[in-house]
Predict the 3D structure of the following.
Amino acid sequence: MPGLFDILVAGEINPDLIFSGNVLPDFGQVEKLVTSYTLAVGSSSAIFACGAARLGLRVAFIGVCGQDVFGRFMLDEMQKRNIDVSNVIIRADGQTGLSVILNQDADRAILTHLGLMAELRASDIPDDLLRQARHLHVASYFLQTKLQPDLPTLFQHAHSLGLTTSLDTNYDPSEKWIGFDKLLSATDIFLPNKTEALSITQSDDIESAAKQLANKSKIVAIKLGADGAVLQTKDKRIYMPSIPVDIVDTIGAGDSFDAGFLYGYLNGWELEKSLQLAAVCGAFSTQASGGTAAQPELDAALAFVK
């Protein structure tokens, strides 16, 4: 097995400050009380990295953060989870990104300060680091604006060095959903949710969207929330139900799903088994506040995998 790492994550760094309570914000200096708060590992990329490491994959992370309390928190939390952060770029003159989240039942509202989240560039990722990994994963495509222009070339270069690639775009704040053809053709595994898949393809149904996307990426695994997931290749479609759980917080469920799928993929599992592990990991992660607190270890997840 070549390299030191199973997965290199090139991503954004920000914690989540999560408030929970059955209230809605109101201007006019109206003060409302929430039930609880949590400062947790945030950012799709970091939550994914934590989930992959918890399953037992060897994970390295590269991104940009500030030399501030939120940056130190994120690096400390990732290191506690055995993620190599030695390649993270720390800028003393910048602010680490931050998301403030209000949870209300199964829904949430999010306010995000990008800070340094968009600063990573493809040129910041050296060949020496790529050669140490088997796989390159990128999430939060729409927030990583300086990585976007050269990402297709980076994925193609990663392929030339023997890596496979995966992408989870997350939501597009501009709602334009454009500029994907070249990137998707260089993506081995595309991991959108239902809203993202329908928006990118301008489709009305998930079957059509899955088929369109699979004409570009080799494997497309679409997250359907409580309805489970669907996987599409050029010649195969697999549906996978979710497992019933008591939902506390859906933050990071999609990232935990991604971690489960890539664990199976990188260990040579059949696609159906990989998809089932992904669905289990996504469901497990909703059972506690924050994106990482309920991510399962491999043995616990495998108890629900046929």
Q: What stands out?
A: The longest strand covers residues 98-104. Residues 253-266 form the longest helix (14 residues).
